[in-house]
């Protein structure tokens, strides 16, 4: 069910036509900006982001623009800081004792680190899917999807419809419609991950962060997740961390290559994988290291 | 550019609930500590005045209704004697059973049954230990005496045994099997491995567990009620009734004389100081141990 | 084993250990096994002797002993109903007051308080267990009971419309004070077990809740508490077991009344307390009755403890006997059980 990737292709065609420099963290091509204005997408921008674990400087002056309604992939070897970047976007990084972040992270030009901002409000708008599927073990399938909705005080009369809608959007409805009251952990790995995605989209965030969402899954489930990501970008801006380069090539509009906490290169996925600018990028994508 | 007013806030109700619950949890923790603080306060407040009486530590209780109530010397020494004897029996037997469980029995049905019953023993009320020894040793005047100090020690042994077994087993299991295997591979017989490798490695943990058991033993009253009963004068004979601190406190509480009530507080302070020292010592050793 | 293990030199005896050499191992193994078996034998033997000693009173009253409401020493009538009632009521009071505070403190220490404070706070809560129960009794008699009496009087008159809870005239020593002291005494064990269980909640569930935009409390409510429920229940039941068996602290503050008390603040009695109080001067059937009370107490604690351990093994997912729980359950409160 993968829709032909015409939109991004159009955009990239337009961008090369428009002669935009393919430097790292620049504004998205003009065309996609216009297109996204119609789609009311939400853009996340990182500017000079630095993150620390105690004394360890994990992310160094990272600047990235995540275009609205597009999938941006973060690739790089382990320890390059990709997960940390993503966790700084929804401020999960703060949950680790001794961790802190400096710099600017904005959602639609609003600073999410502003002291007046409630971190729970940020996370309501920027959802996260984790590497290991983590449905709440004591909750049923229905309750899992409804978990976020209940937090925001959704009326229980509306819950059924919203849960249904959410499960349909991740393609899980047919598989679970007869067992909504069974425990969420009774599902297979791939189904659990789609359940977690359903839980995330139920509260209709603006951005979805995915930290290696398919790395714990079998190949068939992985493909299903990738198809899902492709559909989801119609409604959400997606950032996906992956160590699987083929996956990045399949789902991402643009890709960021990171190494040792720094952004090395950020460009259209095509370019990164066929004709990267930086020599280190080239060595990584051709498998010479990492 | 602080456009935070454009950021949706979570509802005030949720924020309030969060604040209230966090404050409540903090308050509950403080409430949990209030009794401890109060007890220590009163112990010091009322017990010190007993401590400063002359002869408090150096004379025995007189047991007389009038005149000087005396000190608590026989109680302190009696407690030490009885618990020392109980410890002498408990530690080898306790560590022995623990060794059986970790080195030989492991997960056999027999070993698991033993473990289960040891668990059960930790839940048995301590007065039952006293009753049991009463039935078995006191009624029949075993050893030629009715109530006797050594019988109290046996009752305490029943109390301390499961503590020593459980804590020792925990510690012995922490000894890496690679150590055992290395020694066995060098050709050492099993008993040597146990005594030269396993026990020394687990030593500080074993000491910790034993100290905690001793602390527990020192504070118990019920097992002594019908096994040792009490006495006033100092005695070192283990085949007779003997004074102990918990028993002394127990009887002194119901005395109408204020001086004797003060003695009770002083004895309690003494007992708590000893027990606290044992506990803190145990923790100290545990924290210093490599395997903690 | 020692079958033809010929060495290069063909000298098999090099690999054999002499029978004498194997002796210490044998001695050790069988000695320790015997010791372990001794434990089992002791418990069974105790049970048998206890049943034997209480036989007299059970043959006289049958099962009525357990439920009848008349323990009258002077007329040689012995029914343990009031004792059972008192035991259960004081334990329930202890649970109602103690468990919420204990669990709350466990949640606070593990999830909310600054890391540096975790150790010291844990130690302080655990120190409650080091206080001997006779000291709790002492403090209860001279401090807690007199100081709370005015408040109890106020409570009884203000809430006199609630049956049994209010409406009576509070006595200095009563069910409530006993239950309150028991609550304090079971606090450390319930808190320690709860802390252990809460620490096993996988971070991924907590992160899932936070990532949905949950506040700290909501995360605890969604991810921590449901996961910990079986283990915490087990801890609470262990606490109940301790409360049921507690003798010395209770006997000093419960008032030793041999009929079922008419309200919360009236004097009462428990199975353990009656043994402590009356055993010294009991004779004949009275003694047998006290042994019978002990038997009921023994069976009660056995049942409660077995249920508790079942819950804990279900709940803490493998921490039974390891780490702090092992040490904590092992050493227990210094109080009498």
The CATH architecture of chain A comes to 3-Layer(aba) Sandwich
How are the strands ordered across the major sheet of chain C? 1-2
Rg value of chain C: 26 Å
Could you name the CATH topology of chain A? Answer: Rossmann fold
SS class of chain C: mainly alpha
Give me the CATH fold name of chain C.
MetI-like fold
Biggest sheet layout of chain A: 6 strands, mixed
Our estimate of the beta-strand percent of chain A is 15-25%
Shape by Cα distribution of chain A: globular
Radius of gyration of chain A: 19 Å
What is the H/E order of chain C? HHEEHHHHHHHHHH
The total of beta strands of chain C comes to 2
Beta-strand share of residues of chain C: under 5%
Total of helices of chain A: 12
Structural key phrases:
heterotrimer, A: 290 residues, alpha/beta, Rossmann fold, six-stranded mixed β-sheet, four-stranded antiparallel β-sheet, 10 strands, 40% helix, disordered N terminus, B: 292 residues, mainly alpha, MetI-like fold, 0% strand
Can you describe this structure?
The complex is a heterotrimer of chains A (290), B (292) and C (337). Chain A has 290 residues and is an alpha/beta fold. Chain A has one domain: P-loop containing nucleotide triphosphate hydrolases (Rossmann fold). Chain A contains 12 helices and 10 strands. In chain A, helix 5 packs parallel to helix 8 and helix 8 packs parallel to helix 9. Chain A is globular and about 55 Å long. Chain B is mostly helical. Chain B starts with 11 loop residues before the first helix and ends with a helix. The relative contact order of chain B is 0.14. The N terminus of chain B is likely disordered. Chain C has one domain: MetI-like (MetI-like fold, Orthogonal Bundle). Chain C is 70% helix and 1% strand. Chain C has a two-stranded antiparallel sheet with strand order 1-2. The chains are: A alpha/beta (290), B mainly alpha (292), C mainly alpha (337). Chains in contact: A-B, A-C, B-C. At the A-C interface, helix 4, helix 5 and helix 8 of A face helix 7 and helix 8 of C.
What's the short version?
Chain A has twelve helices and ten strands.
Give the secondary structure arrangement, pairings included:
The complex is a heterotrimer of chains A (290), B (292) and C (337).
Chain A: H1 6-18, H2 30-39, E1 44-53, E2 56-66, E3 71-75, H3 82-89, E4 99-107, E5 110-111, H4 119-125, E6 126-129, H5 141-151, H6 156-169, H7 173-176, H8 189-202, E7 207-211, H9 219-232, E8 237-241, H10 245-251, E9 254-259, E10 262-268, H11 269-274, H12 279-285
Parallel strand pairs in A: 3-8, 3-9, 6-7, 7-8
Antiparallel strand pairs in A: 1-2, 1-4, 4-5, 9-10
Helix pairs in contact in A: 5-6, 5-8, 6-8, 8-9
Chain B: H1 12-51, H2 73-105, H3 109-122, H4 126-138, H5 149-174, H6 177-185, H7 190-219, H8 222-225, H9 245-253, H10 258-288
Chain C: H1 19-61, H2 64-67, E1 71-72, E2 77-78, H3 81-112, H4 115-127, H5 133-158, H6 175-199, H7 203-211, H8 216-245, H9 248-253, H10 271-278, H11 284-315, H12 323-331
Antiparallel strand pairs in C: 1-2
């Amino acid at each position: 069910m993968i829709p032909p990737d015409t939109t991004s292709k159009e955009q990239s065609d337009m961008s090369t036509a428009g002669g935009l420099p393919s430097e790292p963290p620049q504004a998205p091509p003009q065309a996609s900006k216009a297109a996204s204005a119609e789609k009311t997408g939400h853009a996340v921008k990182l500017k000079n982001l630095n993150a620390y674990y105690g004394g360890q400087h994990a992310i160094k002056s990272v600047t990235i623009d995540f275009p609205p309604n597009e999938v941006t992939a973060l690739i790089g070897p382990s320890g390059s800081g990709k997960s940390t970047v993503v966790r700084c976007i929804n401020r999960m990084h703060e949950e680790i004792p001794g961790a802190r972040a400096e710099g600017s992270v904005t959602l639609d030009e609003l600073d999410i680190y502003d002291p007046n901002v409630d971190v729970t409000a940020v996370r309501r708008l920027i959802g996260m899917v984790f590497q290991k599927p983590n449905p709440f073990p004591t909750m049923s399938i229905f309750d899992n999807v409804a978990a976020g909705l209940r937090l925001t005080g959704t009326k229980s009369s509306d819950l059924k419809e919203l849960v249904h809608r959410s499960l349909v959007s991740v393609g899980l409805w047919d598989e679970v419609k007869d067992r909504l009251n069974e425990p969420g952990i009774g599902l297979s790995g791939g189904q659990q991950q789609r359940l977690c995605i359903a839980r995330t989209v139920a509260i209709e965030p603006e951005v979805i962060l995915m930290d290696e969402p398919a790395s714990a899954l079998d190949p068939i489930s992985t493909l299903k997740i990738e198809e899902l990501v492709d559909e989801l970008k119609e409604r959400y801006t997606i950032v996906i961390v992956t160590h699987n380069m083929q996956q990045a090539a399949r789902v991402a509009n643009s890709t960021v290559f990171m190494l040792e906490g720094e952004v090395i290169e950020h460009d259209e996925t095509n370019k990164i994988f066929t004709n990267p600018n930086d020599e280190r990028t080239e060595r990584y994508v051709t498998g010479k290291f990492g | 550019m602080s456009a935070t007013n454009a950021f949706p806030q979570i509802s005030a109700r949720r924020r309030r609930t969060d604040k209230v619950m966090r404050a409540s949890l903090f308050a509950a923790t403080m409430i949990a500590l209030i009794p401890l603080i109060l007890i220590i306060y009163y112990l010091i407040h009322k017990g010190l005045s007993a401590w400063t009486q002359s002869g408090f530590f150096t004379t025995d209780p007189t047991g007389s209704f009038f005149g000087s109530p005396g000190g608590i010397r026989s109680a302190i020494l009696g407690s030490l004697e009885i618990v020392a004897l109980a410890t002498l029996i408990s530690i080898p037997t306790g560590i022995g059973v623990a060794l059986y469980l970790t080195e030989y029995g492991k997960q056999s049905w027999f070993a698991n049954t033993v473990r289960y019953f040891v668990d059960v023993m930790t839940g048995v009320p301590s007065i039952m230990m006293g009753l049991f020894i009463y039935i078995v040793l006191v009624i029949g005047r075993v050893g030629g005496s009715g109530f006797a100090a050594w019988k109290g020690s046996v009752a305490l042994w029943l109390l301390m045994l499961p503590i020593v077994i459980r804590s020792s087993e925990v510690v012995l299991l922490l000894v890496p099997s690679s150590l055992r295997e290395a020694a066995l591979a060098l050709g050492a017989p099993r008993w040597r491995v146990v005594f030269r490798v396993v026990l020394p490695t687990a030593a500080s943990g074993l000491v910790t567990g034993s100290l905690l058991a001793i602390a527990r033993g020192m504070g118990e009253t019920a097992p002594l009620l019908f096994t040792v009963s009490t006495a006033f004068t100092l005695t070192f004979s283990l085949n007779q009734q003997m004074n102990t601190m918990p028993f002394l406190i127990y009887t002194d509480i119901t005395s109408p004389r204020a001086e004797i009530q003060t003695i009770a507080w002083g004895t309690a302070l003494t007992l708590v100081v000893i027990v606290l020292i044992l506990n803190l010592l145990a923790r100290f050793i545990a924290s210093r141990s490599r395997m903690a | 084993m020692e079958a033809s293990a010929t060495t290069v030199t063909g000298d098999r005896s090099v690999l054999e250990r002499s029978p004498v050499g194997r002796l210490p191992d044998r001695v050790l193994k069988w000695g320790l096994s015997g010791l372990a078996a001794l434990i089992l034998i002791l418990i069974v033997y105790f049970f048998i002797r206890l049943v034997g000693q209480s036989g007299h009173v059970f043959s006289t009253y049958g099962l009525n002993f357990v439920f009848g409401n008349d323990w009258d020493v002077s007329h040689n009538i012995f029914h343990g109903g009031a004792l059972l009632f008192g035991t259960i009521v004081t334990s329930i009071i202890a649970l109602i007051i103690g468990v919420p505070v204990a669990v709350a403190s466990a949640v606070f220490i593990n999830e909310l308080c600054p890391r540096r404070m975790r150790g010291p706070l844990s130690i302080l809560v655990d120190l409650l267990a080091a206080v001997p129960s006779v000291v709790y009794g002492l403090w209860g008699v001279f401090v807690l009971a007199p100081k709370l009496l005015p408040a109890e009087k106020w409570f009884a008159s203000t809430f006199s419309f609630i049956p049994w809870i209010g409406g009576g005239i509070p006595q200095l020593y009563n069910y409530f004070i006993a239950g309150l002291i028991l609550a304090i005494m079971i606090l450390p064990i319930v808190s320690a077990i709860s802390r252990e269980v809460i620490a096993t909640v996988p971070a991924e569930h907590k992160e899932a809740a936070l990532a949905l935009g949950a506040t700290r409390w909501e995360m605890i409510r969604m991810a921590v508490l449901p996961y910990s429920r079986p283990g915490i229940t087990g801890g609470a039941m262990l606490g109940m077991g301790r409360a049921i068996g507690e003798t010395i602290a209770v006997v000093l503050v419960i008032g030793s009344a041999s009929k079922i008390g008419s309200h919360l603040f009236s004097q009462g009695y428990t199975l353990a307390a009656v043994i402590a109080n009356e055993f010294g001067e009991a004779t004949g059937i009275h003694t047998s009755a006290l042994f019978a009370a002990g038997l009921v107490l023994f069976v009660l604690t056995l049942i409660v403890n077995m249920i508790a351990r079942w819950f804990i093994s279900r709940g803490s997912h493998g921490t039974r006997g390891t780490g702090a729980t092992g040490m904590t359950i092992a050493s227990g409160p210094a109080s009498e059980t």
